[in-house]
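FAQ: What does the model actually see?

It sees only this:
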Amino acid sequence: MADIESLLFYFIRKGLWKTDEAYTGPAIPREKWIRLFELAREQAVTGLLIDGISRTTMRPDSDIWDKWIAHLLHIEQTNKAISKYGLQWQESLKENGISSKIFKGSSVATWYPEPLHRSYGDIDMVITSGYDRLVKLLRSKGIPYKQDSDGLTISDGKWLSIEFHPRMEYVYNPFANKRLQRLCGDPEYSDSNELYFACLITHLQRHFLSYGIGLKAVCDLAAMLYFAELDRQKAARILKHIGIGYFSRLLFGFIDLHIGVATDYPLLPIRSGRNFGLLRDVILGNGYRLKTDRMEATSRIRPAFFRILSNSLFWTRRELRLYPVSPSETLCFLGHMAKRRVKTIFNRNKNI
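And it is asked to produce this:
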């Protein structure tokens, strides 16, 4: 597995930075090409993999390569459709007095050397003003929606979802979150690349604590570090101010070691140690699979009491393991999960 991971990182570097780094390993057999693509798919970086391969003289067998090129064309066309759909929604919101901006997705893709080759996902839209009008607008259009603590989600009825968020990002620690929200409302920071960068890291940290995160999100950070105009000192102040300095240093270490950004970092990278290994294990081991795996496992547990008990044990064990990487955020995340579970049970009983 380590050999496949090394190959993936090599091609990611070629895809992102267009480097002259030479491949010195043995010829890659057909079976390994197939495993390499499956790993890239799990980590949502197939576009970068194909870009990286195209900048070398190596190729898989023609039948495989032709399928990969078709896959890349599909990513391009889908990204174009998603971008158009997002802009249409922005315009519709604006006509109804609602201001918004797109976060992640096509927004962060602008810093990639090939923006259309970033693996696509749902549209994340931050409502900067008029969020209280959103429900009325959706109802007037007859558009069904789901609501949770993170905002509202709608679907196009096929495969694409839009998530409307009332805030750009948040952390579970209430004191750190107050500081973050003040920055998001401060004109000096609200539209800055530095705050955007910090919010990407807080988003990654939240997923790290829950179901894990994959290489796509890490490559987003790497692309910003290299291609975006970032005031390193300003970024460092923000990261420390909202309590994610240590987690950021571990991430920078991972990026520096495996993705190889030729740049200065806002904070000194940590490239070794137990906590670095833990972060690496979550990124490469969980990827984007853990949530699906967990939902499939719990769906088979009956009755509901044992399912709740199983989930409680799962989260407790996981957070105890991750605690050293982000202590205060881990404890607050457990509190958040417990509060949400009690609220769900209470609402269910109230509706009986």
